[in-house]
Amino acid sequence: MPPALPQLLTTVLTALTLGSTALAHSHLAYIIVNGKLYQGFDPRPHQANYPSRVGWSTGAVDDGFVTPANYSTPDIICHIAGTSPAGHAPVRPGDRIHVQWNGWPVGHIGPVLSYLARCESDTGCTGQNKTALRWTKIDDSSPTMQNVAGAGTQGEGTPGKRWATDVLIAANNSWQVAVPAGLPTGAYVLRNEIIALHYAARKNGAQNYPLCMNLWVDASGDNSSVAATTAAVTAGGLQMDAYDARGFYKENDPGVLVNVTAALSSYVVPGPTVAAGATPVPYAQQSPSVSTAAGTPVVVTRTSETAPYTGAMTPTVAARMKGRGYDRRG
């Protein structure tokens, strides 16, 4: 097969699936770390979801969203009925994680946000009580909305604007998240979220898509080994915070109740500020994800030890590992 053909197949698959998913919203299909792919969760009925996944399950069978009216409920933490799996994707401080969304509709403009929370049990994040998680924001997709003179737009009625979601779409619906340097060894939940603002001019019109993945951070050789679960604890270069997700946003926040069709000069990102020491990946370095092998998730056997997950690989992951590239459906 010519070297260019896998990329061509990817492009064709993306084009073919765009029409069928443009109105279907989205979920996190998988993540890729150093070329290795780890399975997310597909909430749609009749989809195969196996125990080897690292993505939290949800009850959003329509690939739908959480409304501002539910910001104070557990649904905003890791989506509707979010439940943690057994698997964790192994990463190291300084790694970049490609978060692959199952497509994103043009016109659903808004910020892309990322948070981390530590899990402290002997099983890591397996069966984690989500209401007990305390979060640190590590990326707010700044500047989220850019004024681009003379440019077109993928938004609605905002000529000359470029949003974080436009950058995500251009990167084949993926977003890179940097694992902060100095992060201590342990189990964490990565929460990646898009807030779609196309109906946000009206109360309860914003659409939040908060979705979670389990990580195992291996900081072998790193001197930062302290638990980082309380506010203002410094782990290497990252200052950990302790925010409850149910307090991230309010219905009337200027970044939630906002008319994106108006002549905006700037956009106020909702939620906490990015923690000191976090290193968001800039727009210029966002790029499509590429997988080269199936990753082996781990299970946590003690707070400082893991073992390879021995369950079956999902058919979707196995198919992607045959040199055919990846598709946007997950």
UniProtKB/TrEMBL annotation:
Name this protein carries in UniProt: lytic cellulose monooxygenase (C4-dehydrogenating)
Catalytic activity: [(1->4)-beta-D-glucosyl]n+m + reduced acceptor + O2 = 4-dehydro-beta-D-glucosyl-[(1->4)-beta-D-glucosyl]n-1 + [(1->4)-beta-D-glucosyl]m + acceptor + H2O
GO biological process: cellulose catabolic process
CDD domains xrefs: LPMO_AA9 (cd21175)
Example of a GO MF term: hydrolase activity
Domain Auxiliary Activity family 9 catalytic: 25-263
Compartment(s) where it occurs, according to its Swiss-Prot or TrEMBL record: Secreted
Source organism of the structure: Thermothielavioides terrestris (strain ATCC 38088 / NRRL 8126)
